[in-house]
Amino acid sequence: MRESVCILGSTGSIGTSTLDVIERNSQKYSVEVLTAHSNHELLLEQCKRFNPKLVVLVDETAGKTLKTQLTECELDIEVETGSEALNEAANYPGLNTVVAAIVGAAGLLPTLTAVKQGCKVLLANKEALVMSGNIFTEAVKQYGATLLPVDSEHNAIFQCLHGAGLGQENLLQGVHKILLTGSGGPFRTIPLQDLQTVTPEQACAHPNWDMGKKISVDSATMMNKGLELIEACFLFETDINKIDIVVHPQSIVHSMVSYHDGSVLAQMGRPDMRTPIAHTLAWPERIDAGVEPLDFYQMSNLTFEAPDYERFPCLKLAQQALNRGGSAPCVVNAANEVAVEAFLKREIQFTQISEVIELTLKSSEIFSPQTIEQVLQADQSARAVAQSIINKDVH
Ligand code: NAD
Ligand code: MG
Questions:
Q1: What's the confidence (pLDDT) of residue 172?
Q2: pTM, whole model, 2 decimals?
Q3: Domain ranges of the chain
Q4: What CATH number labels 3-149?
Q5: pLDDT band for position 170 (50/70/90)?
Q6: What angle (nearest 5°) sits at the alpha carbon of residue 211, between those of residues 22 and 193?
Q7: pLDDT digits (tens, 9 = 90+) for 7-48
Q8: CB within 6 Å of ligand 1 — which residues?
Q9: Which residue among 8, 10, 11, 14 is best mutated to probe the pocket of ligand 1, counting the most ligand atoms within 8 A of its Cβ?
Q10: How far is the CA of 299 from the centre of ligand 1 (A)?
Q11: What are the CA-CA distances from residue 77 to residues 3, 21, 32, 53, 86 (Å)?
C-alpha cells in the first residue's frame, strides 16, 4: 500500500520540492490532495502529473478556471475553493501524511486540522507553531499525531538527537546545547548604512537557498532565525538558554547538537530542501531525494561566527517575545508578516521592518491564549496595530 499524501501549499517552493521527491519514490507515495492559493496554471500541471482526488484553490476565480481546464483535459478531480476548504483538504479520508507548506498564519488552521486527524504531519510552516506554541504541541500529543520537522535546521537537530520521536521524554538527555545555524542571509557583510536602501529584489536573492519571497526576506532580516529559535523551543520542549544561534555563511552544516561529554553532532548536506523533506517523508527509513552527496574534496572552508544583533535587530525581538511568552511570539509573527508584505510592496524600507515589529510588540496587550480562537484574536489585533503603524508612517 502506498502512503496517501496531502500537500498544503503544493505550488510553493517546499510544495514543488516535495512533489519532486514523491515523483522519485512513486512506488511508496500517492498524491491524494493538493492545495494552493491562486496559481491555477501550476496546479493544473500538478493535476496532470499526479492525478490527485481533491484540489483546493483558495481564490474562487482561479478555482473556476481550473475546473474548466480539468474538464477540458477529461480529468475527474474534485475542485474546492475558499479558505474553509483547506480544512477539508487536511481532513480528507484515508490520508497518512500531510505536508504543511503554506506560508504564514494562513497555514495554522489546516495544519491543526491535520494534527487532529492523528496523521503524520511534516511541518514546514513554522509560523503555525510560533503562533500557537503549546496549544499546537499539546494537540499533537492529544491526537497521537507524528510531528516531523521539515525546516532544515530543526530537521538537522532532530537527526542529531537520539532518533526518538518528538514529544518523547528524555529527548534532550545529555544535551548541553542546541546549535541553531543560519547563513546570515544576503546582507551579512554589506555596510550597515546601506541596509536602509536595499530593495526587495536584493533581499530575496539569498546566497544559498532558493525559497519563497516571505521567508527570503525573513532570512535577510534574520527574523527567520528568530522564528526558528521559537520553533525550536516548542518542538524540542526546551528554553532559550539551551539554544545558541551560530552564523555559518556556507549553509553546509544545517545545525548541531552539543553533548555534555564534549561530542558535537552536526548534520550536513547541500542547501537543498529535498533532503529534509525526504527525511521526514520516509522517517525512520531513508529514500532518494535527488540530492548529490557533498564533495569534501571541493569544500575548502566552513566558517562560524556569532550573530550581529546591531545588524539584525529582529533576532533580539524574537528573543524578547520568547522571554515574555504568552501571545508575544504570535504578535511578533503577525507584525512581521504585515511588515514584510509592506516592504515587498515598497511601502516601507528594509530597516523599518524591525521598527514596525518593535512598536507593535510595545503597543499590544500580551496575554496567555488558552484556545486557538484566542491565538487568532491575538494575530488579528497585532496585524491591525502593525498596519496602522505602517499607514501612519507612509501617509
Ligand atoms: P512559497 O511562497 O513558495 O509557497 C507558499 C504556498 O502557500 C503556495 O503554494 C501558496 O499558494 C500557498 N499560500 C500562500 N498564501 C496562502 C493562503 N493565504 N492560503 C492558502 N495557501 C496559501 O513559500 P515557501 O518558501 O514554500 O514556504 C512555505 C513554508 O515553509 C513557510 O512557512 C516557510 O517558512 C517554510 N520553509 C520554507 C523553506 C524553503 O526553503 N522555501 C525552508 C524552511 C521552511
Ligand atoms: Mg530554516
A1: 94
A2: 0.98
A3: 3-149, 152-184+222-306
A4: 3.40.50.720
A5: confident
A6: 165
A7: 999 999 999 999 999 999 999 999 999 999 999 999 999 999
A8: 9-15, 36-37, 39, 58, 83, 101-103, 106, 124-127, 151, 209, 211-212, 215, 273
A9: 14
A10: 31
A11: 19, 22, 10, 5, 16
